[in-house]
Amino acid sequence: MKKSLLSLTVLSAVSVPVLGESTDSASSIPDLETLVVVSSRQDEPLRRIATSVTVLDEEQLKARGLASLADVLRSVPSVSVNNSGGIGKTTSLQVRGESGFRTLVQIDGIDISDPTGLQSGAHIEHIMSSNLQRVELLRGPQGMLYGADAGGVLDISTRREDEGQRFELSAEGGSYDTERYNASASGANETLDYFLSAAALETDGFNTSSDDTELRDDDGYDNETLHGRVGWNISELWRVEAVARDTDASGEYDRCGWPSQDDCNFDFSQESARVSLAHNGEDGQQELAYSHSDLKRIYIGGGTSYEYEGDIEKLNLTGSHGFSREHGMVYGVEHREDTSGDLDRDQWAVYSEYRGSYADQAYITLGLRHDNNSDFGRFNSFRASSAYLFENVANGTVKIKGSYGTGFRAPSLYEVNHNATATDRLTSEPLELPTLSPEESRGLDLGVEYFGENSLYLEFVLFKQVIDKEIGWNNDAYGYLQSQGTSKSRGVELIAETQVTDTLLLSANYTYTDAEQADDSPRPRIPKHLANLGFTYKPTGALSLLVNLRSSAGAEDTDGSSIDDYQVLDASVRYQLNNATAVYIRGENLADEDYEEVPGYNTAGAAAYAGVEFSF
């Protein structure tokens, strides 16, 4: 049925009348006026921002074409991805060598963390790239405005229209019997705006585990995601908005239970919603928002099933106030309640940050946050940043920037409960495991950016992040222990984008990361060297070719053994048949590189996909 639908959709592309070619050739190279939200929770031009931020817009996301957002982010500076056996399988998104759970992930303002997880991170593997308009990544632990434990922030936004209506339909098919479908509608006028989408992905996948030498079955994955947003501008000053998102996923995987088995299944569902009331005045804006996210996971293998269910509720009051054109502040009050089964915790926070501009050349922020955790008491954290512009330098502008932030992470509900209830595996006697206390962290960024009249962008960043009292699993103790020393992640980021000609854009980034645990041993599965080299070629307004080569080197596994270095080549071609129809083909791992990200788990070989997209 699905294959017939895909064939019909592709064939119908030729019946759409030619309305003309797209001639939008705007460069994706950032400039000083590029607006960014993630750094300060409101629109700010890059000239004012001293933190390190990466932005991907809708055009860039579509050009890459990759189904999973985690795969798209592999080309972003300082991001490494560890995947355990293909799309939909357990995936860790690591920014600057830090564990994936330290990066806060939110979609249209909804925190999608998992309160039932080992460390409460988001399940990035279930976020598909369809229907996303903008992705912003704050690289580093300067996310004080989002939570003292945010070591990075991934802010995802769905499509918004300024006016008129837009409808999209798309279908894709390819390797591993993969099929992907999408339908969306969006519109806006002076009073109302909306966005609705439905996306589905189904794949037979491949054998997840290299140790599965007997069953050798393909481990498939299905994902269905519904998303809706509606906004009502009650007046010029007041606005109401509601967002709802529902993700249902299921799949097969290997190596579950004890002794290990290779016939395992999982089901995942997450239902999220957010409502907000915003006021926009001459001197500032305020927003009162309530969000709720309910998550459920079920794992089945060897006749045994494990079920986890929890939710997160947040109530936020955020605002900004401008004392003058040069000086202002952002502020907020937040209440969060996490529930996992019979366990629960709540946390209050209040924060404020001063933002100053001096002669439109120097910019400073000073922020303070106070958290009160029901289990671990009170903590203070702060952030300071500064940027200074030198204009008319080599036909461009140079920005020197620096930022420093502190934070803490309370032990997750799972970590606390395990240490309190763990028993000896042989005698079933209670184990005497220590009571955990919050981790404390701090991070420093120092960087230089060059903006060369929309044709050249260069960035150089030195970063260092340290964590005291880091919590980790100890197999000998069969519990979670805290390090007595300090774990560190430090390195260098080099980023370059240049518009070589009107039709050719080159981009490159390199990250060196030295990530160590408290005992000075390398942090497992963190590459020392990450690099991307890519180009986008647009010979006409209708045709575009994107090629990207990514490289990973210098990673070690949990036992200290080396993980093989690898290089992966991806490419995609997109052709705009007319204003309403685009077709594309995509090749992944074109050189058929045989590599591992997590030892013992397979990765996809050479693969090809083709699709069609209607937009009207």
Automatic annotation (TrEMBL):
InterPro entries: Beta-barrel_TonB, Beta-barrel_TonB_sf, Plug_dom, Plug_dom_sf, TonB-dep_rcpt-like. Residues 46-152 form the TonB-dependent receptor plug domain. Residues 205-590 form the TonB-dependent receptor-like beta-barrel domain. Its main location: membrane. Pfam families: Plug, TonB_dep_Rec_b-barrel. Keywords: Cell outer membrane, Membrane, Receptor, Signal, TonB box, Transmembrane, Transmembrane beta strand, Transport. It is a multi-pass membrane protein. It is found in: Cell outer membrane. The keyword Cell membrane does not apply. Belongs to the TonB-dependent receptor family. Hemoglobin/haptoglobin binding protein subfamily. This is TonB-dependent receptor plug domain-containing protein. The lineage of its organism: Bacteria, Pseudomonadati, Pseudomonadota, Gammaproteobacteria, Cellvibrionales.
